[in-house]
Batch of 2 targets.
Target 1
Amino acid sequence: MYIRQSKFPNLRKYQYSAVDHSLVSRYILKPFYTNFFIHLFPLSMAYITLSGFAFVIVNLLTLLWYNPTLDRDCPGWVYASWAVGLFLYQTFDACDGTQARRTRQSGPLGELFDHGVDAMNTTLEVVIFAGAMNLGYSWITILTLFASLCAFYLTTWEEYHTGTLYLGLVSGPVEGVLTLCAVYAVTAFKGGSFWQRPMLEALGLPSPGFLAPVLRDMSFAQWHLVYGGIILAFNIVQSSHNVTRARRSKNLPVAPALLGLAPFFTTWLAIPLWLSLRLEILHEHILPFIFFIGASFAYQVGLIITAHLTKSPFPYFNVLSLPILAGTLDALGPFLQARLGLGWTSVLGGGPYTIAYVLACLGLSIGVYGSFVVDVVTNICDYLDIWCLSIKHPYAPNVPEKKVE
């Protein structure tokens, strides 16, 4: 059981808090959502974000059909469908909160669903993006996964400690998603191979003489890494600053909060080490590995959100990090033996047994995350007397609301 009995009363005290400084959201998207799109949904419909996630699943299926190796060009309509599907997901996700407010169904379960689906979408969108840019089974794909998951983890960690979801002038859920939609739309006309061309040359821009040749010849995909690294560094600094300020305002120590970054970064110290020692995973079976990492990440994020909703201690431990550490240690033993003469024999031995282990880890992660979702959702629904995917107590405007004692 993931929620202690003593913590259930805190669910009724939950109040959603968010700050959105995005100009695009304020002057373009929100008027579109509230004045038009939200009225397409009946008042009986709940958890629109989960419905919108179906568009992402369709996008993933077309990717796996036309470009399972992430390095081939697809028909133009495939990329166009990715742009439309992702925009619809963003729209459904944004309308979910408005729908909850107009049906008087706002609550902690909606927050859990919203973040949980967004966490899964983040991983799947990395795979789709890699397919759009023809990144292939490469380190660039892994770096893109790290940056995307890290930005999401920082936002969740920050919300736990500050109680507020902060979206700046430029944020992933708004401008980041729209940028991806634009990338997919351009790819529909140019093809995925376009992004592997040197950027300056493709744009017809002059190459400054002071730039090193390696910079002048960098492709769009490589410049994407540079851009992503800068944005990620900014997010780390900004989130850390917000958490530090919030802790100090409550006269609480900062160190325990900063320690909450350890579960993510410790895992991501092991992941590249494991892949570098078992290159067959990287170059041949990266997709099940990414899905395993994504499920493990969604589980960790789910634990943090649940702790936030119930005002429980921060979850520093993720049981799904153990298979990652075990796989890394198994591959590290023979390496240390060869280099230092000190080590241990690999149990898996590489090859098919390593791949079987990755598939087993994927199955384990789906089982653990699935059991977490079922347990938490069931218990929240039972305690709050609500249904999961439909509205149990429809809002009646003429009936006075009962006060919660």
Note: The mean pLDDT is 88.
Target 2
Amino acid sequence: MLVYGTSGLCSCPQSKVLSLRIFSSFELGVSTRRQVLKQVDKELAKGDDRAALSLVKDLQGKPGGLRCFGTARQVPQRHYTLAELKLNGIEAALLLSPIDATLGSIERNLQIAAVSGGLAAWNAFKFSPQQILYFSLVLLFLWTWDSVAFNGGVSSLVLDTIGHNFSQKYHNRVIQHEAGHFLVAYLVGILPKGYTLTSLDALRKQGSLNVQAGTAFVDLEFLEEVNAGKVSATMLNRFSCIALAGVATEYLLYGYAEGGLTDINQLDTLLKSLGFTQKKVDSQVRWSLLSTVLILRRHGAARSKVAEAMSIGKSVGTCIDIIESNINDTDI
């Protein structure tokens, strides 16, 4: 009808009215979606995750609503070999054992600067060996205190802050990593409820040095299954894909992953806590990795737009609207 009404082939008044009504209905759907998403943001801000999830599910799958929520296409679940992953352009070793070379380099440079500064101070102020020993003991105490009391939170905060301010590559990588988590979570049917891009931002929002930057999710259904003592395959598959979405995003953009080691370790711990053998863990990880990479390849444009929005602090609702606006019906 829209094509017919806008083609100019029919000039009868009835045709124009019909076309106008269809267009207005579409606009009304988008307007309603954005109004609902604003309410979702309000519920999340209040901490009412259940209400926010209910709003999203009420609009799920409706025309002009949330068409994409929970619609991700995944590969058939079976055991995939490393050779099959390679055939799909995935070198598992390049993303399942991430090493943060950027922060590692920053940490080494800080250590070199500290040693150099100590030697310079020794020569300038003529510190005695005993004073140097005292200074070393104080630094060792502070490092130990941070490791025990804050699980290394102070050190991580310092390194992360320096990384974001002095390495544009690191800053961009973190944003893309979290955008991957956000997009995949939404598409597999798990509602994101917030995100932080820096450890300093996480400290400001949550008041804890033990919380690193990352994306949080409304995991009520998952926790209910865990408390009931049985996690369904569907729920496990969703969270497996979410866990690997960050490293998969980095791999697709840069050819390897640096961040995300914590994500992988948490997934490994979860699977083993459910009684998975190592062979079954490997099978679950490979299936999840293949599914996640294919989702990200299919919706790369949407992920890029979400990353742009996250970089300027847009709300969860706004990021969801961006996803809905940048995925066509044919891609669902």
Note: Residues 103-162 form one domain.
